[in-house]
Design goal:
heterodimer, A: mainly beta, six-stranded mixed sheet, five-stranded antiparallel sheet, B: 112 residues
């Protein structure tokens, strides 16, 4: 079935560094969603993108909807310890299935 | 506001046993879904529902049943538990698949 592939799988960075991750699909998506999962919790929405080429920010987070509609990118600037967690991309497949990516695990060291 | 409530939080089953994972939401969302989370695999869709009385299969439906008799509740049934069903299960709800999804706290299931 359809899968969203995220890279990198995991990242180990130092506090203050910038982070970039991406999500790719073999199919076109009309919506891209980025979620963060804290340890022991369910995912929480960070940013939603609804238009190809759209660039949206939420504090230190910036996400972009790829022009081809088959990819999306998430950047985190000046990382802090509370950025630790798993980041997921997601989108509605065939209009009625919300599917998630494989996740990028972020570890931030002081 | 409770949001999405999942029970139980932890469960250990023996192979062959059956059980139901409960999920309830109080936001009047039409769309509800169940996912399982395994290391390196992300969140995989098991079953979903676009409204009361309507359910459909996701990516990994085998071994699971669902029903949606009310807008609020979307239980997930394991018919005959297998060790391969050891996982963390999440229930989610939203107005639509393209809208913000709200998740429960998860159920950590171990099948021995």
């Amino acid at each position: 079935g359809q899968q969203l592939n995220q890279s990198p799988q995991s990242m180990f960075i130092q506090e203050g560094e910038d982070v970039s991750m991406n999500c790719t699909s073999s199919s076109i998506f009309n919506t891209w969603l980025w979620y963060k999962q804290d340890p022991g919790e369910g995912p929480v929405l960070l940013i939603a993108l609804y238009k190809a080429g759209e660039l949206t920010s939420n504090g230190r987070l910036t996400a972009q909807f790829g022009i081809t509609r088959k990819d999306s990118f998430l950047n985190i600037s000046a990382s802090i310890p509370s950025d630790v967690g798993i980041y997921f991309c997601a989108g509605p497949y065939n209009t009625d299935k919300l599917i998630f990516g494989t996740g990028t695990r972020l570890q931030v060291f002081p | 506001n409770a949001g999405v409530t999942q029970t139980p939080k932890f469960q250990v089953l023996k192979t062959g046993q059956s059980m139901t994972l409960q999920c309830a939401q109080d936001m009047n969302h039409e769309y509800m879904s169940w996912y399982r989370q395994d290391p390196g695999m992300g969140l995989r869709l098991i079953h979903y529902s676009v409204g009361a009385g309507i359910t459909d299969q996701g990516e990994v439906p085998n071994g699971y049943n669902v029903s949606r008799s009310t807008t609020e509740d979307f239980p997930l049934r394991l018919l005959s538990a297998a060790p391969s069903q050891t996982s963390v299960y999440f229930c989610a709800s939203s107005y639509s698949p393209a809208a913000e999804a709200f998740f429960g706290q998860g159920t950590r299931l171990t099948v021995v």
